[in-house]
Amino acid sequence: MLEFISRGLQLGVTAGTGPGPFQTFTINSALTLGWRKALILCCVPIITDIPLIILIVFILGALPEPFIYGLQVVGGLFLLWIAWGIIQQWRKGTQIGGTVDASLTQISSLNVLRRGVMMGLLSPGPYLFWGTVNGPLLIKALHLSLLHAAVFLIAFYGSFMILIGLTVGIFDRLRQLDPRIIRGILLFTAVLLTWFALTTLWQGIDGWRGLLAATTSR
């Protein structure tokens, strides 16, 4: 039992602190919208992972390479769209804290949640994570008992969601800094998301090229 608790905590901390598109989006949402709207992102991992657990762990076991490559292409394009929206806000000189741009006040928590869920479903990371790391551990726990599996999932999602909440809280407080510093951080998140998008897109395109080359060489 303790083994699954420790592994769940370890993996949850890794997922919550590792740099990635979702973490970058969380930081940007906390800075631009505040904690009240950004905190809903804590729910994203559970919402996105339920279909992944059913699909990968209990049905397919492993996803075919063409699916992963296609997901990388679509996910990369979606990240580019998110990054472009951030850059547009930055170019307009959006104010953080105090007088906030009117377009930001119209963004609801549901809209933030929707973007976070789409980001999770269109990113290959969770699919690979559940297919290679979390999935086998969950199956191992299920072979012992439902309690073992429940403890593992609670430890994983508990630590993951707490770290998302801490990230939101920390960057919400940073909104009180000099607006020039905040705009610099926002630009950095846009550049970082663009980099994630381009690398993800390239991995998908390169994967498809490899498959086509292997097919034509036969």
* Count of strand segments: 0
Percent helix, as a range, is over 70%
Q: What's the number of domains?
A: 1
The CA-CA distance between the termini, in Å, is: 50 Å
Identify the overall geometry.
flat
Q: Tell me the series of helices and strands, N- to C-terminal.
A: HHHHHHHHHH
| Class derived from helix and strand content | mainly alpha
Q: Strand-residue fraction?
A: under 5%
Radius of gyration: 19 Å
Indicate the mean pLDDT: 83
Low-confidence stretches: none
Number of separate helices = 10
Mind summarizing the main beta sheet? none
Keywords:
single chain, 218 residues, mainly alpha, 10 helices, flat
Summarize the structure.
The protein is an all-alpha fold.
Question: Could you describe the 3D structure shown?
Answer:
This protein has 218 residues and is mostly helical. It has one domain. It starts with a helix and ends with a helix.
Draw up the topology in text:
Layout lengths: L1 H16 L3 H13 L1 H4 L5 H17 L4 H27 L10 H4 L3 H13 L2 H21 L1 H28 L5 H38 L2
Helix pairs in contact: 1-9, 2-7, 2-9, 2-10, 4-7, 4-8, 5-10, 8-9
